[in-house]
Structure formats: C-alpha cells, structure tokens
Amino acid sequence: MPLYTVSHVGNLRVCVVMVGLPARGKSFISHKIVRYLSWLSIKTRVFNVSSYRREEYREQPSADFFHPDNEESKVIRDQANIDAIKDVIKWMNEEDGCVAILDGSNVTKQKRATVAQILRSNRVEPLFLESFCDDEAIVKSNILDINSTSPDYSGKPPGYALEDILTKIKYYETHYEPMDLEDEKELSFIKLINVNSQIIINKIESYLESRIAYYIMNLHIKPRYIWLSRHGESQYNLEGKIGGDADLSERGMKYARKLKDMVEKYVPNHDKLEVWTSTLRRTQQTAQFLPNPKKQWKALDELDAGSCDGLTYEEIAQRFPEDFAARDENKFEYRYRGGESYRDVIQRLEPIIMELENQENVLVITHQAVLRCIYAYFMNSPQEKSPWMSIPLHTLIRLEPRAYGTNVTRIKANIPAVSTYKEKGTSKLGESQNSAHVMAGEVITSDVANQ
Ligand SMILES: O=P(O)(O)OC[C@H]1O[C@@](CO)(OP(=O)(O)O)[C@@H](O)[C@@H]1O
User: Is the CB of 365 under 6 A from ligand 1?
Assistant: First the structure.
C-alpha cells in the first residue's frame, strides 16, 4: 500500500517554484526536497531551467549573457522557463508525477505571476520557495560549491566561478524583486532568509505543502556528522533468531565498552554528543557505557516481524514458505503477518529524519532494518535496494552530509560477531565477521554517495 494514500495527497499536484539570485542554494534545496519526498514514496522530480537553456545555447555563456539589456539572451532564458514548465505538466499528465521542482531564478513578480497562471490553468498548485540571502559568507561558500558541481563550470579551474557568478549576481540584482507579502499575498510561498534564520510562510494550505514547509524549516547547512551504529551482537543474533528483546552476547557487551573508546577517539566534541536508542534492551545495553545524554525512541525499534518474531529464517522458510518467498521477491513492500514492512518503517521514521536534519551531533544506536532505512535517506538509495544493504554489527558509521551528497566512513570495531545478513533466495546467514582472526586496530573505510 502506498505510504501517502489518496486521502493524504489527493489529486493534488504541486510545483515548487524556486526563487532567488544565483548562489542562494536553490539547487541544493531542490535536491533535498526530491530526496525526502522520494524516500516517502511521493513521485518527485527536479526540472532545472538552466539545463533547458543549455540545450538551446550549448556554449558556456559568459556573464554578459545575463546582462539585463541583452534582449537576445532574455528570449532564450524566458523560453527555457516555459519549456521546463511544459515538461513539468507533461510529466505529471503522462507519468503521474506528484511534485515537481522548477529550479530556476524567477526573480520578477511578472515572471512569477506568469508561472503561477500557467501552472494553475493546468491543475498544478504553485508553491513558491524563495531563498533570500545577503550573508556574504554563505553566498561565497555556495559559489565554491557551484564551481565544483555545475556543468556551466566543468573543466574550469577552482576559483574561476567566483568572478563570473558575482557579475551574474550583479546583473540579476538590477531587476530582482524579492517575494512580497503585499503584492503577492495570493500566492502560496515560503521565504527563507539567510538559510533559516528567519522564515516567512504565506498561504500554505494542503497537507503536502505543509510537509514540504516543515521539512524546509528543519534544514541547516552547518558542517556536521551523523553517527550510526547497530547494537552489539545479541543473544538472538547468535542463535540466528529475528526480532525479540534479547540481551547482548558477551561479544556484544565488549562492543558496548569499546564504543565508548571509539566515540572518544573519533567523535569531535564528543562531550556534546546526544545518544539516541530504541526502547529495546540490546540498544540500551550498547549505549550504557556512554556518559552522554540519551533519548529513547519507540520509532527506532526494529521492524516488527509479527508472527515470525523469535524464529530463525530457516524456521520461517519451513513454516511459512509462501511468506518467505514473497518477502524475498519484494522485501520493501512485504509486510509480516501482524507486523511491518520496510515501507511501514520509513513512515514511522519520518520524525527521526526531521530531527536528524535539525540536529548537529547525534549518535543513533538502532537495528539492522531501521538503520537501512535511515541510511537509504542519506545515501539516496533506491527503494528496492535499501532492504538488501549490508549494515554489519560492531561498526560505527559516520555520515557527513554535504551540499551535493553524503560522505560515509565506516569504522569497524574489530570485535568478531555473527553475520545477520541473509542473501536473497536462501535461508542461511552469511559468514561471521572477523571470525578468522582479530586485527590489531579499527579498520576505516570511506565512500561517497551523490544526490
Ligand atoms: O530485513 P532483514 O534482512 O530480515 O533484517 C531485519 C532483521 O535484522 C535483525 C537481526 O537479524 O535485527 P536486530 O539485529 O536488530 O535484531 C532482526 O531482528 C530483524 O528482523
């Protein structure tokens, strides 16, 4: 069953129309919204206006292309906006798209009125989202990000974009009209001032629009890490049983002690770290040696295996062969009898994601399925793959959200544990981790996922 049923979003189709000068983080915000709504199974897509302009005008335009008196380029730029909107409507009509993000600048009232009129006449609700920013430090750091990620500057040396974008900003400023509570009071809009130091919200009406507004309000761009860990190996893990509320095994307890040392060694400002656990014993026992403030969340409890709780995968395959096969076939959608599916877990994790977006220094100690869902959000992983991701025991994971992706570092504690990973098509579990020999120190691996 889809997470957001008709009663939630109805036939509502929303186009989030970005507004703002260059280097105001509009593309960053656009991609974050897509990631969040897609994770919640709402069909969402970005339509980047400058990529339409790029099709027409293949050459890398100099800043003069954006000069307010350049009539020829104005035609190209206006047409790019119209072409992008046409594609938004086509995508919604033909592919049942639900939320589109029009990632352009839409800096004049006139342009916004035209966009609103076209969208409404096609039964699409416009939601304007302005990023207003006059904090030079933020603008400069955005320019550096653009320099390294925008196709307009690919192949150019670092620093090249600075002068070019500053000129472009100067041209745009000549006709920029920030969103106005008087003249534009009929429009639904969210206005972010210097990221989210002040937020103005006007005429947000539908459930979907309010979810987007609430999410945007929780975003921040301060550099930070998010720390994740499964609980230490449990007695049930040792026996290959799923679910339950077992205590830690001896090795699990060793990990709990070691986790304290690892936090001291690897977490900057670890004295300010907040530790979140589920309400189950194995996560709380794993957190017990950490001196930090702790919060228990029911939402972090493991996926409820219903009538299979306490069984091994082999027992499930024997007693409920059809269910066992159905879960392998579609692990994301499969809901245990009297229990949950991965889709259900994502729904209850939404408040956790909101909080994590808002926080700066948190360690989440939780379970295999729950961690896969949280990890999938930050790594932008496709739904069908996320329930099969490997999240081994006795490993501290560091996520570093960046403007256009998330860096991941895994620090293995070097304490042996069983594997709880079951491949598709078998009821056997994988090989134990680190069982052959114990290595001298922690093992660190890094990875990066792009939006
Ligand atoms: O979705 P799958 O791959 O079955 O993984 C979820 C399972 O992981 C387990 C371990 O097998 O998590 P946990 O370590 O938190 O106990 C089970 O309790 C849970 O049902």
Answer: no
Q: Is residue 236 marked as binding?
A: yes
Q: What tens digit of pLDDT does each residue of 171-224 get?
A: 899 999 999 999 999 999 999 999 888 999 999 989 999 999 999 999 887 788
Domain boundaries of the chain, sorted by first residue:
10-215, 225-450
Quick check: CB of 246 below 6 Å from ligand 1?
no
Does the domain at 10-215 match CATH 3.40.50.300? Answer given as yes
User: What CATH class has 225-450?
Assistant: alpha beta
Residue 367 Cα to ligand 1 middle (Å):
7
pTM: predicted TM-score of the whole model, two decimal places: 0.88
232 in a known ligand binding site: yes
- 284-321 burial, b at 16+ Cβ within 10 Å, e below that, comes to bbbbeebebebebbebbbbbbbeebbebbbebbbeebe
Long-range contacts of 144-149 (CB under 8 A, 24+ apart): 145/28, 145/403, 145/404, 146/22, 146/23, 149/403, 149/404
Q: Where are the alpha helices (DSSP H) in 288-320?
A: 313-319
Report whether 390 belongs to an annotated binding site: no
Separation of 244 CA from ligand 1 center, angstroms? Answer: 10
Q: 242 in ligand 1 pocket by Cβ < 6 Å? A: yes
Tens-digit pLDDT profile for residues 150-169: 667 777 776 777 888 888 89
Query: Comparing 10-215 with 225-450, is the CATH topology the same?
Result: yes
Q: Which of 258, 241, 201 is closest to 438 using CA atoms?
A: 258
Question: How many other CB atoms sit within 10 Å of the CB of residue 182?
Answer: 5
20 is in an annotated binding site: no
Residue nearest (by alpha carbon) to ligand 1 atom 5: 369
- To test the pocket of ligand 1, the residue of 420, 421, 423, 426 to mutate (highest count of ligand atoms within 8 Å of its CB) is 420
Structure tokens belonging to residue 31: 């991609």
Q: In this structure, which residue's CA is closest to atom 17 in ligand 1?
A: 242
E strand residue ranges, 377-430: 395-402, 405-412
